[in-house]
Amino acid sequence: MNWLENRIPPPVVGIVFALGMLACARWWPTLAVRFPGQAPLAALALAAGLGVVGVAVAHFVRARTTVDPLHPAAASSLVTGGVFRVTRNPMYLGMALALAALAVWLGHAVAALLPLGFMLYITRFQIAPEERALRAHFGEEFDAYARRVRRWL
After folding, report:
1. Measured between alpha carbons, how far is 144 from 101 in angstroms, rounded to an integer?
2. Is pLDDT above 80 for 130?
3. What is the percent of the chain where pLDDT is above 70?
């Protein structure tokens, strides 16, 4: 399945997982769970996810490097400051938080598993190939960064 590597834009992958979550909630409504503070918690998780993505994109724009995840070899610089000191993949983390927000809002047991599925897919088919390209492009600079900062959190 290597042909899937760097093929599908990550936002499209996120949308597919979100649609899967909505489908689960529709097909199996009896697995829904409601709890106090559900909507505010979902809103907080969504705001956090969008905030992380926004900050990460701003760092890339400031560094004048590509934001295009399908062509990591086109990166002109390795961004390691700001939110990138905490996670090597803040944009994907933000997307996972947005999916977690949807899971909380839906309050659905099966849908709650799909953000993890997104993380597994993105790690295998997006992050791993990106890291190979960055390692080839930046060498020891990337290796040192990868030793200092975790892939997710």
Report:
1. 33
2. yes
3. 100
In a domain, 5, yes or no: no
Distance between first and last Cα of the chain: 27
pLDDT of residue 117: 98
Domain range for 64 is 39-148
> What integer is the mean pLDDT of 109-132?
96
Rounded Cα distance between 77 and 59, Å, is: 11
Which residues are within 8 A (CB) of 72 and not within 5 positions of it... i.e. 6 or more apart? 6, 66, 129, 130, 133, 134, 137
Classify residue 118 as left (phi > 0), alpha (psi -120 to 50) or beta. alpha
Q: Distances from the Cα of 58 to the Cαs of 19, 52, 84, 112, in angstroms? A: 28, 10, 12, 29
Determine the Cα–Cα distance for residues 104 and 132; give it in Å rounded to an integer. 34
- 1 pLDDT more than 80: no
Determine if the pTM surpasses 0.85: yes
Q: Is residue 72 part of a domain?
A: yes
Determine the angle formed by the axes of helices 114-122 and 90-106, rounding to 10 degrees. 160
Q: Is 84 part of any domain?
A: yes
Number of domains in the chain: 1
Q: For residue 27, is it within any domain?
A: no
